[in-house]
Each structure stands twice: as C-alpha cells, then as structure tokens.
Design goal:
The complex is a heterodimer.
Chain A: E1 5-7, E2 10-13, E3 19-24, E4 31-37, E5 44-50, E6 65-69, E7 75-79, E8 88-95, E9 103-104, E10 108-112
Parallel strand pairs in A: 2-10
Antiparallel strand pairs in A: 1-3, 3-7, 4-5, 4-8, 6-7, 8-9, 8-10
Chain B: E1 4-6, E2 11-14, E3 19-25, E4 33-38, E5 45-49, E6 55-57, E7 60-65, E8 70-75, E9 84-91, E10 100-102, E11 106-111
Parallel strand pairs in B: 2-11
Antiparallel strand pairs in B: 1-3, 3-8, 4-5, 4-9, 6-7, 7-8, 9-10, 9-11
Classes of the chains: A mainly beta, B mainly beta.
Chain lengths: 113, 112
C-alpha cells in the first residue's frame, strides 16, 4: 500500500496482558516514529528509529514499553503487563529522514479493561 | 518555555470567515516547519509545509516569522469541512530525543 499501515486497528485486552502493535512504514522511509494520543490530548512522543536504530529511548513511559525495527521496515511496539492508563490510540508515522514531514498511519486504538 | 506552543482554542467562526492561528517555537535553530490537520478520532494529516518566503495552497496560507519565532496558518473563506484540530510541527533541538516536536493543536469549529 502507499501509506503507513498499522495493525491491529483496535485491540481490547485485559489488564496485565502483553500486547504487540505493528507498523509498516511507507516504502523507502528511513525514519519511523511512535506516538501515543489519549482522548482529547495532544501527541505524546514515544520513540523513533533511524534505520533499525533508536537513538534515544527516553520517551518511552516505562520499562514495560519496548520497540524494535527490523530490515529498516516493520516496527513493533510491545507493552508488557498492560495497565488501564495504557489505553490510548498508538500512532505510527514515517518520513524520508529527520526534519522531513511525517506521514501517519490510522493508529491502533488500545483499550485495557 | 515549552518547545512548541499553540492556543488550544476552540476558535468558533462562521462559514466564510477568515481565521488565523499562530504557533510559537523556542528553538531559534529550527529549520523545518509543518502544519497538520487532525479530524476527531483520526490520525494527523499533513496540510502543508511552511517555507521561509511563505506559501499558499488554495484558501490556506502559511507564513514563517523567524525574528519572532512563530509560524502562522491563515484560512480564508472557511468551510464547515475545515472544522478540525490544527497541529504545528517544528524541528527539535539537537539534544532532544525526536527530530520534530508537535504542538498540542488548535481546535477550529466552523459554524453554519
């Protein structure tokens, strides 16, 4: 597809379970970004990858959050032992490089019961 | 001072009105600037880049004021469909953990 693809679109899970969110960036985009957006709030930056490397992981909210990227393509964001406060839309974006416009996927709406 | 600041609004304007939003930024070395539009419960979508000389796309005009460190978005002849939240994005300080910083957005409601 031409755009950023995220899966699943929606995820409902019980507190304490692990979840894995996937992002397929636009082909050829070297930079990939993860954001979290709670209802009615702004974008909260989580992490970004340049190639397969994440220069800085300090945006991740806690050690329950981790992310990886392989083949300079697909990225997964994993949340372990989910808490109700993790409920949000998780958005992925990609760009040709630093300081270039970012293009967003539709997001994954995560609900923790 | 926050890196990127926007008036959250809401701006409630009648159809056909002209409305302008500003976005201030703290990093004087910022080089890249963008405006995004986000509809309710949707992802942000790139509206336009902001160039030093200012640029126009139909009813939308974006301008950069480096001296005062702000960018602006002007919407002429507002349509009901322009109702959305408008986010600005600015190059981040080199020491930061992300290349671009987004503002929290300005909400616009165009009323019939």
């Amino acid at each position: 597809g031409a755009g950023v693809s995220q899966s699943p679109s929606n995820k409902v899970t019980e507190k304490g379970k692990d979840v894995e969110l996937r992002c397929d960036p636009i082909s050829g985009h070297t930079a990939l970004y993860w954001y979290r957006q709670r209802l009615g709030q702004g974008l909260e930056f989580l992490i970004y990858f340049q190639g397969n490397s994440a220069p800085d992981k300090s945006g991740l909210p806690s050690d329950r959050f981790s992310a990886e990227r392989t083949g300079e393509s697909v990225s997964t964001l994993t949340i372990q032992r989910t808490q109700q406060e993790d409920s949000a839309v998780y958005l992925c974006a990609s760009s040709f490089g630093d300081n270039q416009p970012q293009h967003f996927g539709d997001g994954t709406r995560l609900s923790i019961l | 001072r926050k890196e990127v600041e926007q008036d959250p609004g809401p701006f409630n304007v009648p159809e056909g009105a002209t409305v302008a939003f500003n976005c201030t930024y703290s990093n004087s070395a910022s080089q890249s600037f963008f405006w995004y539009r986000q509809d309710c419960r949707k992802e942000p979508k790139l509206l336009m880049s902001v160039y030093s000389s200012g640029n126009e796309d139909g009813r939308f005009t974006a301008q950069l004021n480096r001296a005062s460190q702000y960018i602006s978005l002007l919407i002429r002849d507002s349509k009901l469909s322009d109702s959305a939240t408008y986010l600005c994005a600015v190059t981040a300080p080199p020491s930061g953990n992300t290349p671009l910083v987004f503002g929290k957005g300005t909400r616009l409601s165009v009323i019939a």
